[in-house]
Amino acid sequence: PEKVNYENFNKFKEFLEEQDIWNKWSKENSSYINSTINEIYTRYAKSLIQTGKSNDQDFNTQLLFEIIALENPYSAKNKEGIKVLLLYKNKPFANSLITVFNKINNITSKQKIITDAKGEAYIPLKKQGTYLLSAVHFIKNNNKDADWHSLWESLTVEKK
What we know:
By secondary structure, this protein is mainly beta.
């Protein structure tokens, strides 16, 4: 993990608000509000790349925090979008934010989608370009290196 120190509490709060985590975090951790925040973070990343006319599927690679495409984004029947599953510790991660970035010709759009009770979400893939699906989970750290540990998961796909 990499380390980050938030000496400005408002920057930390902005980060949690952007990830739709602030309300829950602030209720459970009010004693940390306005203090210096020490965090470590770990990034998990996957890219789905198709070669030829494959019908292969994404699969669970056993990452601690992982997005799995439940449908092949390169299949003609999925040209409008795909279902994905967000897992934390190999269990569905319900009611969690997945931010979808779509870049076409150096213009990036962003959409926020919340997973359902089964940790699943439908991701629209109607436009061409590169898609980055991103999720963040923030947990209390269990050692003295930092107070908090953020887990970052991403999945990239390119639509032509």
